[in-house]
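Posting for a labmate who doesn't have an account.
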Amino acid sequence: MPSTAKAQNCGGRVASWDFDGVTAAQQKKFKDSFCRQILAVERWVKKQRLPGPKKIPPLKITVSMQFPLAMSLVPAWQGNWGVMQFPATRVAAGQVNMAHELVHVYLPNGNRMLAEGLAAFAQDEIGSNPAFPNFGKNIDKMVRCDIKPQDLRKVSLARLDKIRTPDLMTIGGRSRSSSLSGYVVASSVVRYLIDTYGMTKFRKLYGRTPFVPGRQVGRTSDDWKAIYGQSIRDIEKAWKSKIAALTCP
């Protein structure tokens, strides 16, 4: 069983720390980095003015060898908002996606593609270290070079837009590679939306699928047309054209 570490609580933001599979030195380094990352995420959330809950519960952090991936959005949907799980291997390697998971706590969303894409975007923008899903690599080039062309041609943003939290974020099937590709695509799409059309429009889109624990929230209207003046299929075509123009090493 993990042992509870009674140390700094990040200004009252963290209720508990539980560690298993990492050394005392690694625990201290993680806690110090995590407290700094919380402040960076809070500043970023305030600056972007994205729709999210007004009050954040005290966080319960668990680091364990039992976790293959970091997780906070699914526990929040299940009624355990503030529970954050991190794999010990990533913590030990200094590759844990703290900003990504904190954005899920501060800005959860009912649309899985937008939720994961924004979290990955934040990790790239303000994360203290390279982390999942791209580990510092250019996300668009990962789409272009790491996803098989035949798989990319099958990617439908309209289908991905229908994936509701907490359903699996995947471009098709339940394999590990398909799931990873789903996160990469979501990250690339959200970056394209923000870089091309600005945060104001993305903020409106994000607000159309609010996060409701225990209930899956989908679209009730053509938000894409209303906000961007074009269909999601038109946006997909433009995004894929940008990706296709990139060259691989």
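Reply:
Got it, the structure tokens are right above this. The longest helix spans residues 24-48.
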